[in-house]
TrEMBL record:
It comes from Balearica regulorum gibbericeps (East African grey crowned-crane). Residues 588-742 form the ZW10 C-terminal helical domain. It is found in: Chromosome, Centromere, Kinetochore; Cytoplasm, Cytoskeleton, Spindle; Endoplasmic reticulum membrane. Interacts with NBAS and KNTC1/ROD; the interactions are mutually exclusive and indicative for its association in two different vesicle tethering complexes. Component of the RZZ complex composed of KNTC1/ROD, ZW10 and ZWILCH. Component of the NRZ complex composed of NBAS, ZW10 and RINT1/TIP20L; NRZ associates with SNAREs STX18, USE1L, BNIP1/SEC20L and SEC22B (the assembly has been described as syntaxin 18 complex). Interacts directly with RINT1/TIP20L bound to BNIP1/SEC20L. Interacts with C19orf25 and ZWINT. Interacts with ZFYVE1. Keywords: Acetylation, Cell cycle, Cell division, Centromere, Chromosome, Coiled coil, Cytoplasm, Cytoskeleton, Endoplasmic reticulum, ER-Golgi transport, Kinetochore, Membrane, Mitosis, Phosphoprotein, Protein transport, Transport. It holds the Pfam family Zw10_middle. Transmembrane segments: none annotated. This is Centromere/kinetochore protein zw10 homolog. Residues 142-379 form the Centromere/kinetochore protein zw10 middle domain. Residues 436-566 form the Centromere/kinetochore protein zw10 C-terminal domain. GO terms for biological process: cell division; endoplasmic reticulum to Golgi vesicle-mediated transport; mitotic spindle assembly checkpoint signaling; protein transport.
Length: 743
């Protein structure tokens, strides 16, 4: 019973809550259908209204944007129009800056209009054209004004020299009294500022600057005789030139600077002291003056011209004048300062001043350049103008500065070195070191001058600053290296063709080599301190110069030998001399050889040192004798008449050969050398022995041989003597007996 009660109780409680849940469900259903109705209503009506409203709103917004655009365009068009109107008014009143500014306003309005995309107006093209026309019109007016402000009176371009044309150039600058400024027309400033506003100032000034350089500044620098000359009239200032006799070829930098300064002062006063009002983005006022603009344009060219045509010439050529150069540096500084004050120059130490201050280096460069140019001129001058030098010749020079204590080498010492050592030309062997201690001979006067130049430059070097000293020392070495390269090439043809020139060149080289041995030595006290490891020497160049002289002379010797052999080759081998024609040919060949030797003996006379002369002539005479011996010794048959004729040909050589030895112009002094010919002609005795054989009988030949101990055996081999016997004598028993004794 208890359980039943509990169940009933729970059930009774449950029924009502079940009921309320059902009510809730039906309520929700009702609400849901209401929402559906409402949603349908919104979807159908309100949504449609909203769409319409948005569309209307967008359309209105676009309309507003269009109206704003049109309005801004109309506004710009109006601005453009106003600007052009105001420009016209200002132009009529000659208010050039205002007019130019209005034009620029019109220009910026037009730019705005053109930048609107999707809004191309036909009118823009017309406005652009209008603006261009007005700008050109304004520039034309300004140009006219400018031409009255600065008037160039220039010579016709056909004027002859630069000096002439400068004399006829004038620049007139209009001056305006300040009180009547309004009446007299616009001042310079307004014209130039208007140009600036229109962006045309640069072009105008550039043209002005070029004229200024060409007709005023450069002529003043180039022609020392030109003087600027100014004249002031009521409304014009005239700048012209007058000419006065210059006292020097180049005016001093001081004079030139003063003249140029005067020109700039005039320009500054009457034309260029005008600030250019240029609007700058960040609104700071920047006042650039015209002077500065013009300075920018012409300074570089002007300063180059001043350096090249004025400062370069003022660099001293000897070190003693270097002290005085301080003046030039000072005046360069003042010149720059003056130009800075007038605002033509901005910034510090320009190239001009740097150049002036760097005088020591320029001095050295100029000096070295002068030295090399002088040296080159000497090397390319004629070789055959000669001077005579003797063992005691020394280079003409100012006294060398005394280096104080130490083993000071006097200049002459070197020429006392022996000069009797021999040179073996025949075998072309090396020279002994002292061979050419200046024996008496002739050298080119240009080479003597070259040596003086070298000594003087070294002397100058010892008195210079270290840097300069080093440069000068090397430029002296360059002189010799240049000689080594230039002379043999430049005079090549003549050295090959003319035996006398070859001899002079040979002497020149030996003379230079001789001086190079001691050249550095005399200056070593000063030079060694500066040049590391005592490199102040020229000794290393000596062998090269000796070789150069030898090679040239030996080449000439080869040419002469070749000619001798060539002439002897026409002697028909000296065979069959009993034939008249053959004898004539042989005789002619011998005459030609003697003639050639005689001519050489003359052209080398007094030129070559005597010992070299005798060796050279001896070598050539030897070539001839040796060739004749070889040809005769090779003959297979010599008749008695042949032998007589050969003997007389040989006698001609022996009698006249020595006479070609004429080393000295005084004939009586040559006898000694002619008697010494056997010393210089290796085959002389051989030749004499051959002549004896041609005249001897068999017994005499055997006696001359004397069992291989006689004079004949000293000159000929047994085979050669046998061959000659067979050619000269018939085959008899006596001949056979004689032949048997030659062994």
């Amino acid at each position: 019973g208890e359980v039943c009660n509990m169940i009933n109780k729970k059930y009774n409680e449950f029924l009502p809550s079940m009921q309320s849940a059902e009510d809730l469900v039906s309520q929700v259903d009702g609400l849901s259908s209401n929402i559906d109705l409402l949603k349908a209503g919104i979807e159908n009506e309100v949504q449609r209204d909203l769409n319409v409203a948005v569309a209307e709103f967008t359309e209105l917004k676009q309309q507003l944007e269009r109206d704003t655009l049109v309005l801004s365009i109309l506004k710009k068009l109006q601005e453009f129009d106003t600007a052009i109107k105001e420009y016209n008014t200002a132009l009529l009143e000659k208010k050039y800056v205002a007019a130019a500014q209005q034009l620029e306003k019109a220009r910026s309005s037009l730019k705005m209009l053109e930048s609107r995309k999707g809004f191309e107006l036909k009118i823009l093209k017309a406005l652009g054209t209008e603006l261009t026309v007005q700008t050109q019109n304004m520039l034309y007016h300004l140009g006219e004004e400018w031409q009255t402000l600065a008037v160039w009176k220039l010579p016709p371009s056909k004027e002859s020299s630069g000096l002439e044309s400068a004399m006829h150039s004038e620049l007139h600058l209009r001056t305006v009294p300040s009180k009547e400024e309004e009446i007299a027309g616009p001042p310079v400033a307004s014209v130039l500022q208007a140009f600036a506003v229109l962006g045309e100032l640069h072009t105008k000034l550039k043209i002005f600057g070029q004229l200024l350089l060409k007709y005023i500044l450069k002529p003043l620098i180039s022609y020392p005789s030109l003087q600027p000359f100014t004249e002031e009239q009521s409304d014009v200032f005239i700048l012209r030139f007058k000419s006065k006799e210059p006292n020097l070829d180049h005016s001093s930098p001081m004079e030139v600077f003063d003249k140029i300064k005067l020109i700039f002062e005039v320009l500054h006063k009457y034309l260029l002291n005008v600030p250019l009002e240029q609007p700058v983005e960040d609104k700071k006022e920047c006042r650039v003056t015209l002077a500065e603009l013009l300075g920018d344009m012409i300074w570089e060219e002007l300063s180059d011209c001043l350096i090249q045509n004025c400062l370069v010439n003022s660099i001293p050529t000897n070190s003693s004048k270097l002290e005085q150069y301080i003046e030039v540096i000072k005046s360069t500084e003042e010149f720059e300062k003056a130009l800075k004050n007038m605002q033509f120059l901005k910034g510090d130490t320009t190239d001009l001043l740097k150049y002036a201050r760097n005088v020591n280096s320029h001095f050295a460069n100029k000096k070295c350049q002068d030295v090399i140019v002088a040296a080159r001129n000497l090397m390319t001058s004629e070789i055959h103008n000669t001077v005579k030098i003797t063992p005691d010749s020394s280079v003409a020079l100012p006294r060398l500065p005394d280096p104080g204590a130490g083993d000071h080498l006097k200049m002459q010492t070197t020429s006392k070195l022996l000069h009797n050592d021999t040179v073996n030309l025949e075998n072309e062997t090396k020279l002994s070191q002292y061979t050419f201690s200046l024996p008496t001979c002739r050298i080119s006067s240009s080479v003597e001058k070259l040596m003086e130049l070298a000594y003087q430059t070294l002397l100058e070097a010892t008195a210079s600053t270290d840097q300069c000293c080093i440069q000068l020392f090397y430029s002296v070495r360059n002189i010799f290296q240049l000689f080594y390269d230039v002379v043999p090439t430049y005079h090549k043809e003549n050295l090959q063709k003319l035996p006398q020139l070859a001899a002079i060149h040979h002497n020149n080289c030996m003379y230079i080599a001789h001086h190079l041995l001691t050249l550095g030595h005399q200056f070593r006290y000063r030079l060694t301190n500066i040049l590391c490891d005592g490199a102040a020497t020229f000794v290393d160049l000596v062998p090269g110069f000796r070789r150069l002289g030898m090679e040239c002379f030996l080449a000439q010797m080869r040419v002469q030998k070749g000619e001798i052999l060539e002439r002897l080759s026409s002697a028909r081998n000296f065979s069959n001399m009993d034939d008249e024609e053959n004898y004539c040919a042989a005789n002619k060949a011998i005459r030609q050889v003697l003639h050639q030797l005689k001519r050489l003996g003359k052209v080398w006379q007094d030129v070559l040192p005597v010992n070299v002369y005798c060796k050279a002539m001896g070598t050539l005479l030897n070539t001839a004798l040796s060739e004749i011996v070889t040809r005769i010794a090779a003959l297979e048959d010599i008749s008695a008449e042949d032998a007589d004729r050969l003997y007389s040909l040989c006698r001609t050589m022996v009698e006249e050969g020595p006479q070609v030895f004429t080393p000295l112009p005084e004939d009586d002094k040559n006898k000694k050398y002619q008697e010494e010919v056997p010393v210089y002609v290796q085959k002389w005795m051989t030749f004499k022995e051959l002549m004896i054989i041609l005249q001897a009988n068999l017994q005499e030949i055997v006696d001359q041989w004397a069992d291989g101990k006689g004079p004949l055996a000293a000159e000929f081999s047994a085979a050669e003597v046998k061959s000659l016997i067979r050619a000269l004598f018939q085959n008899t028993e006596r001949r056979a007996a004689a032949l048997a004794k030659i062994k």
